[in-house]
Design brief:
The protein has two domains: 12-79, no CATH class; 83-318, TIM Barrel. It contains ten helices and twelve strands. It has helices at residues 55-79, 94-97, 111-117, 148-157, 172-179, 181-199, 215-223, 261-273, 288-303, 311-318; strands spanning 12-14, 20-22, 37-40, 43-46, 83-91, 122-126, 161-164, 205-206, 227-228, 241-243, 279-285, 307-308. The strands form three sheets. Strands 5, 6, 7, 10, 11 and 12 form a six-stranded parallel sheet that branches. A four-stranded antiparallel sheet has the order 2-1-3-4, with no helix packed on it. The longest helix is centred in the N-terminal third of the chain and has 25 residues, at 55-79. The two termini are 41 Å apart.
Length: 331
């Protein structure tokens, strides 16, 4: 490659008398390379000015140079991305999403405001029953003046993604055994229908409660168009959920990861980074202790160069590059 010819997103290539080629950061383009001029900024490289008897050879060289440059652009764009899909199960819980300050109770900041503050988009895996009208949550949950449906609409309004955690939050393997596969599928479908009343579109992703699902049911749901999230070691690491274990920190639980939840999640990410993995799907829950951990975790991860994107955007970007091989026993 001629010295000084930079190859990066934003470089333009044009034939002297032909259409210009614009290479974007996603490396999608249509191009025609024969004899051409490449330029970037104020620098200019004029190449392959050939005589008639050299045109065929120069055309081949031009195609080769274009291919090399585009490969470098696409490879750099795919391998350098540091992405996190933040996901939250078991909501919507208005007192977590909007925050609360009750007498005698430690104030809980708004999860939605915290995400906005850190320029983070997230994906919420909701329980369908919470989207029924006039539903405020379970009896033990702090009640605000907002319904769960209000909270879901606010999630969507702020640009977050809403996906399916079933209608009734049943353990699907046991549910199928007692009620049959048709009933299990109906529970998933009912949750999806209620999500659609909020978003206007069919959800695409399903996270089974506790990640437990019989293989035959999973296969049939996939045939119906669902992408089922999993922690299985059979899934490529970049597409496998990271279990944050945040539910072990809730209430009077005594098994919270040490020294802290945020430190534990960082340790897991660092372990994956040592394996060359810089894309992560992290499973959290809508819990006050999780919000407290995220107040530390999100700014730290942003400082390390991570972007927080919805699950759909994550999949769109990660699936376009080669995935790391399955690593059994790795988080």
């Amino acid at each position: 490659m001629p010295q000084g010819l930079a190859a990066k997103a934003g470089t333009r290539f044009a034939k002297p008398h032909g259409p210009e080629l614009q290479v974007d950061s996603g490396c999608s383009c249509t191009f025609e390379c024969t004899t051409f001029t490449a330029f970037h900024g104020k620098s200019r490289y004029s190449g392959f000015r050939s005589q008639r008897n050299e045109k065929t050879a120069m055309k081949s060289v031009g195609y080769l140079l274009c291919a090399v440059l585009l490969f470098g652009l696409c490879n750099a764009s795919a391998s350098d991305q540091k992405l996190i899909a933040l996901t939250f199960d078991d909501g919507p819980r208005p007192y977590i999403l909007f925050g609360y300050n009750a007498p005698g109770v430690k104030p809980v900041p708004s999860l939605l405001d915290l995400l906005d503050k850190n320029q983070a988009k997230a994906t919420f895996f909701v329980m369908g029953w919470r989207l029924l009208p006039n539903t405020y949550g379970e009896r033990h949950e702090y009640r605000t003046d907002k319904t769960c449906l209000d909270a879901a609409r606010e999630e969507f309004r702020r640009g977050h993604e809403i996906e399916n955690h079933t209608f009734s939050h049943v353990q699907l393997k046991q549910f199928e055994r007692t009620k049959g596969e048709a009933a299990a599928i109906a529970d998933v479908d009912r949750g999806a229908q209620l999500i659609k009343t909020v978003t206007g579109s069919q959800p695409h992703y399903l996270r089974p409660p506790d990640w437990i699902m019989p293989s035959d049911l999973e296969r049939d749901l996939q045939h119906r168009g669902w992408t089922v999230l999993t922690i299985s070691s059979e899934m490529p690491v970049a597409l496998r959920d990271i279990n944050s274990l945040d539910y072990l920190c809730a209430g009077k639980a005594t098994q919270c990861p040490k020294p802290s939840l945020d430190a534990s999640v960082l340790k897991t990410i660092e372990a994956r980074e040592r394996k060359g993995i810089t894309t992560h799907i992290i499973a959290f829950h809508e819990l006050s202790t999780t919000v407290a951990a995220l107040e530390v975790l999100l700014p730290e991860l942003r400082a390390r160069g991570y972007q927080f994107v919805t699950l759909q955007e994550y999949m769109n970007r990660v699936r376009t590059k080669p995935l790391p091989a399955t690593m059994k026993g790795q988080p």
